[in-house]
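ARCHIVE RECORD
Type: protein–small molecule complex
Small molecule: glutathione
Source of inputs: curated submission
Record status: active
Notes field left blank by submitter.
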Amino acid sequence: MTLTVIGSYVSPYVRKVLACMNLKDLDYEVDPITPFFGNEQFERLSPLRRIPVLIDGDFSVSDSSAICAYLDEAYGGHGLFPADAKDRARARWFEEYADTRLGDLFIWGLFYQKVVRPAVWGEPGDRARIDKTLNQDIPAALDYLENELPAEGFLFGEIGVADISIATFFRNGAYANFSVDAVRWPRTKAFVERTLAHPCIASLLPFEDVQRSTDIKGRRQALLNAGARLTVETMAMREARKGYMRL
Ligand SMILES: N[C@@H](CCC(=O)N[C@@H](CS)C(=O)NCC(=O)O)C(=O)O
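STRUCTURE (tokenized, with ligand):
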């Protein structure tokens, strides 16, 4: 049975789930919608109108952490969490830190302001928020990560959900023209590059490039041409609608 993931390839949370599915060698199809364009069916599956959503037969669940934990428990293959209880707890902490704090900074502080607001809502981003994010909040987060991340390899030996959860936000950071200063945060810079270069994430890049460079009319065909496996039906509608959180 093929699994289905609802959500755009450009979302860091969708990328996290797809990278974990790639690691586990799972078959899946994607309905690459932007959350703001999700229809009623999407909202029934995702009450917060957020992506990603996973559909597995007659079961569905939203939230990248819930999805990754489910996939790890329901399917074999590469384990997403370390074996030791304390390591597992730390892995969950890094996942939470990334989803919440790095999400706040890289998505809501940068990507949403610089890319989504002009493109989806036709309004400029909040300049003061962008400046505070770049000058205060991201440097503090990077100071923290610099002390936690390994100089080589991944957080708990093999690559897992903790590494992926952190690295995924830096790709959206790059889409908003952010890059890590290698002099100030050399470990973080190398860790992010190493993780994003892993085939489980690197293989998603061509689809992200298409998603970013095509408009809604040509996107589906361009994604198929690039080799993406897409659902036949989509949960997208024409009109954008704001979600329930933060906006
Ligand atoms: N905690 C959620 C966060 C998901 C999330 O915020 N996704 C963004 C897209 S990158 C979204 O759907 N935003 C729409 C909104 O919040 O209205 C997860 O881990 O899946």
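CURATOR ANNOTATION: The chain is about 55% helix and 5% strand.
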